[in-house]
Design a protein that fits this description.
Layout lengths: L24 H4 L3 H24 L3 H12 L4 H8 L3 H19 L2
Length: about 110
Amino acid sequence: RRTGTYSFISLNDTAASDDSSAPNIEESIPDENARAAFEHIEKRELAQSVRDNIAQLPEKQRRVLESYYFQEKKLGEIAREFGLTEARICQIHSQALNSLRPCFVN
């Protein structure tokens, strides 16, 4: 059985006891709710940026991406709607993604 010595500290204490301008321990603990809120805002802004960039694509590329990603249609279904082969829809899809790639590469 282990026994140890424990000491209690106040969350109002600073991590460096000799520096009164240092943040207190409570301020050093990350706020998970704030992080989640920030991530939510980041995702929403990214989604809006994707939609804005898709809107700038040529009509056929835009419609293929909207059908595939937003309406969750399969390439074969999109091909039938466009009166094209599935292979051609796959090419249009690839062209659209290649057009968008520079917008999101850092």
